[in-house]
Amino acid sequence: MLGTCVGARSAREQFLQEKIDHEAATVAKLINLPHQHALLVLRVCVQQNLRHLQRSLKSDDLVHLWDKLDTTLREAVARIRGLPRPTDQLDAAVISLPIKMGGLGILSYKTVAPHAYAAASEAADTTLAPILTPGTLPASTQLITQHQRCQEIFAGNKEALLGSLTPEQAKAVVEASSKLGRVWLTTIPFQPSLRLTDFEVAAALQLRTLAGEREAHCTNCGEANFFGHPEL
Q: Domain for residue 94, yes or no?
């Protein structure tokens, strides 16, 4: 059934673990690509590879595996970004937001999975009910799509994120959600004028993920570093 697994928890766990291990091996190979290409492949291709399983695989008892995949994807972003620090809750919040909300659009598998499965189950029940048990559901049943379910979650996550940030950081998230602020993420470098250097991509990621400065104090003025200080 759509390449999924139906059965006991142990069988489903082994199945999903093997899928995630395969994706982790693919992610590891991105290190050989220029940063712009690596980020595009990560966002547009690799992170999408197991999305179908969120709708077709019962995984409410396999949350730890989705969390493991989320961590793998975040660490790949951190490698491209280049800052010598582990990913944290702020990284997780920003990276998992849609790009139109100021994030990177690498949606959290752990967050999306229950909503994707619920939407698919509801759609399947509605389709099969008239066939298996005629008359049990009204003809005008309004389905709640996966998109609708997730958008509500993402909007709440964005509000919570903005409420936890400094004014400078909040402004950066709002700017990142604008068309000009996000266009570089979706630009395909098929000609020289559209290509970004590794340094430019790393710098853009540091700004978009609200990463701190490498040094505790500014090397130009000697003052304590904070987000946005280089622009002052």
A: yes
Burial class (CB in 10 A: 0-12, 13-18, 19+), 105: middle
Return the structure tokens found at 135: 């008359």
**Cα–Cα dist 80/35, whole Å:** 6
Where in the sequence is the domain holding 169, given as residue range(s)?
9-213+226-231
Tell me the two tokens of residue 5: 């697994």
- Whether 40 is covered by a domain: the verdict is yes
Nearest Cα to Cα of residue 208 among 174, 184, 173: 173
Give per-residue pLDDT as tens, 21-77: 999 999 999 999 999 999 999 999 999 999 999 999 999 999 999 999 999 999 999
Number of domains present in the structure of the chain: 1
- In 3-state terms, the chain is what percent helix, strand and coil (to 5)? 65, 0, 35
